[in-house]
Amino acid sequence: MKKLLLVPFLMLALLTACSSMGMSGQSVTSQNGIEISNPVMMSAGSGETTGAFMQIKNTGAETDRLVGATCELAGMAQVHETIMDGDTMKMQQVEAVEIPAGQILELKHGSYHVMLMDLKQEVKAGEKVTLTLQFEKAGPVTVSALVMKR
Asked: Under DSSP, is residue 7 helix (H, G, I), strand (E, B) or coil?
């Protein structure tokens, strides 16, 4: 009898835990017409540089722009893009990235991403790091990024 009562309780706990999670188990943050899912960053040592990646959906009625980022653990955070310069792949800071209404911007390796430079401490796989993305219209949106092993 006790086992039969335990099953519904465990199912309710599992459904509650999953209700705010994205497809890969990462959190989803929705604020002011911006929805951010699966925020991750790569592990790195103190003083090093690493990247943060996620999907950003503009659920608003008009285009918004990602114009910057901050992270208390980084000396500097910038929005970057990866470009090809002849045979060389380079990363460069961008002023802003447009996200049309109803569209998704994927920050990923080899494309747009948040570059976190001069880390103030080591970040290890499994930890969570707070990042704040700045949008032109939506304003600041804070997310918790899961640190993944490089």
From this structure: helix
Q: Name the residue ranges covered by the structural domains of the chain.
A: 25-148
CATH number of 25-148: 2.60.40.1890
- pLDDT tens for 36-59 read 999 999 999 999 999 999 999 999
The closest of 65, 63, 75 to 139, measured between CA atoms, is 65
The tokens describing 25, both together, are 């188990």
Of the candidates 77, 96, 99, which has an alpha carbon nearest to the alpha carbon of residue 33?
A: 99
Dig out the tokens for 114 from the structure.
């948040």
Structure tokens given for 55: 């999907």
- pLDDT tens-digit map of 71-116: 999 999 999 999 999 999 999 999 999 999 999 999 999 999 999 9
Distance of alpha carbon 137 from alpha carbon 4, whole angstroms? 51
DSSP string, 9-44: HHHHHHHHHHTTB-TTS-BEEEETTEEEEEEEEE-B
Residue 84 bridge partners (DSSP): 89
